[in-house]
Design brief:
Number of strands: 15
Largest sheet: 8 strands, mixed
Structural class: alpha/beta
Strand content: 15-25%
Shape: elongated
Order of helices and strands: EEEEHHHEEHEHEHEEEHEEHEEH
């Protein structure tokens, strides 16, 4: 009986210009592979290994076998016979969500009364995550008052970006993560050093201390390997949508309702426009379906479906399909470089007023 090779159904392939990727969505890991192996793995779905060896010349049989054996060692695939091939159907990679809005970003909103109204509106839109960004110091008492409003809310995850002061020490952070279990992430900026704290000490909350002074939303949009997300939800969303802006809404520091604080288009002020009204504007969903397979350069990148995206800061502000400004990866050479020193990005850096920011960006 003819022998076949199959990847496990949770292992998904992505082809890049010079190399490809196997994304293990179960272990949330990824493995780089040659493009030749990508093509072979596609063919093993339909033809036997003997036919593969003939097609790629019998003298390459040992090389191909070594590839397969390596994938087996990594628990990414397995051998099976012709009958067994049909026993392992492909995983459904459709992306669906019941929520009108998945996430919300709020800048510099420190009035408790405004949060009460905002939370009610976000609940109506079924929002699941809110990220609160404070560029200036916020008292611990006021922060606790704001977070208390979420205790009976259907918003089940909270992220905080806070400016450091002497009162936001580890004891206070431990208290926050103990009392408010919805908090999944806290970034404390403007600290003396950079440190990622042990999440086990903070009820599984991600705690990051950053020496970067965050005084505007220009800090956002960085593309880096440390932000890659080889998770099934992210991967499947990326195939159809923009993973940064799909089902996202934001309130900038001026109270403007936007897709993202980095995008200039406003759909009204929170004080006189409801979130539902802004969402109903056809223009609001302009970027929701701009996925990585459409974006210049990104569409040739092997990392595109585990990477995030930024439509707020791009290399060409007049092209909605331009590559993210803060990406230094070149899929045509497989090399990473510091994005801020690229002379081809100087015009865009000046347009977004990031001349000072790029000197301290990491």
């Amino acid at each position: 009986m003819m022998k076949h090779f199959k990847l496990y159904s949770n292992c998904l392939l992505v082809k890049g210009f010079k190399r490809s990727l196997i994304v293990d969505t179960q272990r949330i890991q990824y493995q780089l592979i040659p493009n030749d192996l990508f093509e072979i793995l596609l063919k093993t779905e339909k033809i036997s290994l003997d036919e593969i060896y003939i097609e790629y010349n019998i003298e390459n049989k040992k090389i191909i076998e070594n590839y397969f054996n390596r994938l087996i060692e990594e628990e990414l695939g397995f051998y099976c016979n012709e009958e067994e091939v049909e026993w392992f159907p492909k995983m459904n990679i459709d992306f669906q969500t019941p929520f009108l809005i998945e996430s919300c970003i709020v800048e510099e909103l420190s009035e408790v009364g405004k949060y009460k109204n905002l939370i009610l509106q976000l609940e109506d839109l079924q929002c699941q995550y809110i990220e609160i960004i404070m560029y200036e110091t916020l008292t611990n008492e006021l922060l606790l008052d704001i977070l208390s409003l979420f205790e009976k809310s259907s918003i089940n995850r909270i992220g905080l970006i806070l400016k450091f002061d002497e009162h936001k020490d580890l004891t206070f952070l431990k208290y926050l993560t103990t009392r408010f279990l919805r908090i999944v992430k806290i970034i404390v900026h403007s600290t003396e050093d950079n440190e990622v704290l042990n999440c086990n000490d903070f009820n599984a909350t991600e705690i990051i201390k950053s020496s970067i002074i965050i005084d505007s939303f220009k800090f956002c949009g960085v593309v880096d390997m440390k932000y890659f997300t080889p998770h099934i939800a992210h991967f499947t969303e990326s195939l159809q949508h923009n993973t940064c802006l799909n089902r996202k809404i934001s309130i900038d520091r001026n109270g403007e309702i936007k897709n993202c604080p980095a995008i200039s288009k406003s759909f009204g002020k929170l004080q006189d426009t409801s979130l539902a009204t802004a969402l109903a504007d056809p223009e609001f969903k302009k970027y929701w379906n701009v996925n990585k397979d459409q974006i210049n350069t990104c569409k040739d990148c092997e990392f595109r479906h585990i990477c995030t995206d930024c439509r707020g800061y791009t290399e060409d502000e007049n092209d909605q399909y331009a590559k993210p400004l803060k990406c230094g990866y070149n899929p045509y050479t497989n090399e990473w470089a510091e994005w801020s020193t690229n002379p081809l990005k100087e015009k865009a850096i000046e347009y977004y007023g990031m001349q000072d920011l790029v000197k301290k960006d990491v």
